[in-house]
Specification:
Strand content: 15-25%
Oligomer: single chain
Radius of gyration: 15 Å
Distance between the termini: 14 Å
Number of strands: 7
Length: about 170
Amino acid sequence: MKRLLIVWWSMTGGTRQLAEAAAAGARDALEQAEASAEVQVVLARADHAGPDDVLGASALLVATPENLATMAGVSKDFFDRCWYPVLDRVNGLPFAAIVCAGSDGQGTIRQLQRFATGWRLRQVADPLLVITHAQTPEAILAPKRIPEAELARAAELGATLAAGLAVGLW
């Protein structure tokens, strides 16, 4: 069975909502295509995911918040722990990313693309960037509620990855 691995981390709930929407979109697409038995959708927190999860994946979606112009430390730790055990063993693995940021997100996108290049992953979709406009310490630390339109974009990304796996596109 093919496996879509969605690795996520969230401190205030925004990125978790996006990852869950991507997983729901993937599952819905598989159900509609009657391909649920062909592709498993796995949601894994970044602090629980490891090399075996990546090696068992048929496609990888990483969802992370941006903290101080870079990916969240727990997301970076996921890559640190997995880097050498999977290096040269996931070449060509389909990859996409979701970044939840207060104002910019570009630093995190660049960092994720560097990791993808180093692992020789195949980026199959443009990164999904969701801006929350949180600018004060209070707003940054507050629980997030992601707008439905952004959740729909995440669901579409998940559906695209799952459908691509189901039909053998990647």
